[in-house]
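Feature request disguised as a bug report, sorry. It would help if multi-protein outputs had a clear separator. Right now it looks like this:
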Amino acid sequence: MRYDFVCPSPTHYPFQWFWDSAFHAIALLQVDPELSKQELRCLVQGAQPDGYIAHMLLWERRGNPEWLKPEACIRLDHPFFTGTIQPPVIARALERIYDATGDLGFVREILPPVLRFVHWLECVRDADRDGLVTIIQPDESGLDASPKYDAAMGIPSHPPEATLPAWRRSMHRLFDAYAGKSHEEQATLGVFAFEDVMMNVIYADALRALARLVGLAGMPGADDLERASGRTHDALMQKSWDPKRGLFWISRDRARSASRCSPSRRSFRLCCRISTQASRSVSSTSTCSTSASSGSPIRSRVSLPARRASTRPG
């Protein structure tokens, strides 16, 4: 299998990250749209038959053994991919590639695994069916060890030298809880379950972009995607927006008891303010199902800052 992707850093970050690749694909439109397309082609080679796409694809893992040590704090589902997700920026990247190239053939090629992934998010990570997906460890928000989750993880800020060891212990506590359990089981444990605001804004935007692309490609499901995006937007405004303070709160997911949480009580404050008007721009779309994709690891060249070519993972 061939892999070809933009490597964030050949020494420190040698693998392919899910949302990094989506941003790389957008930036590469200023260089060569064909490289943008290859970035996404490489990424979706990691899609599993059930729709799951990991946040890391470990191309050339044998050459980077330090990433497999406990202190790296990554959770593997497979020798070549992790058991963790990231926000679905891939849909916006696909839309941007279409806007720049008008290539509907490429859209039809990439849509099935992307649609299947958002369907996976709906089925596995929205247990209470309120339109908001749940993250089950802090780095699934895309912000890695963001301090906004320190309280939930039991991580102290003082003394400073205690922060990193506490973070590692807390991450391994989550890993131990998830070990041997299916994705569906992990999502219902509640050891760490938050309806992260940024994750869900990106999820709503992904559904909106997919609704548009599905319509352009002449595929069924555009109206459902549009409705699902609107539902996620409305749920964010209802559960997370605090008009008195002018900010969003990150809500703890209580899906196991099917109860709704009050954003002003069971939540952590988002570290940035977002205006009501900006929040409404995530507007409308929904979810849908698709056909299968390859479950094997990936092929790649690596570029910007370094691009490698290989015909098999290793």
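(second protein starts here, but nothing in the output says so)
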Amino acid sequence: MSPTKVESDYGAVLHVLLFYIWRGCSLSRKAGITGKADPKASLLTLSAYEATLSILQLIRIGYQADAVILLRGLMERIAIIGYLGNNRDYIPRYFERNLSPYSKALSWAKKNSLQNWMTLYSALSNVAHSRIEGPAGHIHNRTPIGIAFRESPNRKPATGTDMTEELLGLAVYSLIALDPLALTLIEDRKSQPFPIDTGLIQNVGINDAKEFHNFLQGLVDRYIKHSHPHSSAT
């Protein structure tokens, strides 16, 4: 099977993300099976890593709108993992469906998770649950979101940030938020979270690690440039 365009352009990014998703799934299963952690807690973290994998697959094959919608759901999963990690007594009630922690979990994430959490969650919610237009309307009509979706297949990464880069950036952001919370929930104090794991180069290889770093740095540089449009003139 020939690689997709996303694999050709962003193979190193995919490889790095896939390794840490695989690691998260493996550690979650091991913690639940060995009794190192509450099996229910390990199921929570396992489901979140698997949801991240599903999103990465959609990005890889070009199903960008579906990836956006699932990214919103993933952010909710991550918020719940963080909230339940701080309130472990609620885990049995959650599995018994006697607890609906969504609003409290999102409030927890707003205060305790990564910077811009609620800004990104709100933006994704506007796409998934727009009162004016549904996701299909954004894509097929002349909205900024729809234009980005239509133009992304024709834009080269070197010319600027395209939709694929944006989605991969969101996948990276989500995994950065998920990994430390998941490791805490399964009581894994040995593994270092993504992306500050000192074994990253050993795990993925120096070439992929460098390309991954360059990808992140490119996104950061472009966002800084766009957030300060007149900086070059000073």
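Even a blank line would do. Unrelated, but nice: The chain is about 70% helix and 0% strand.
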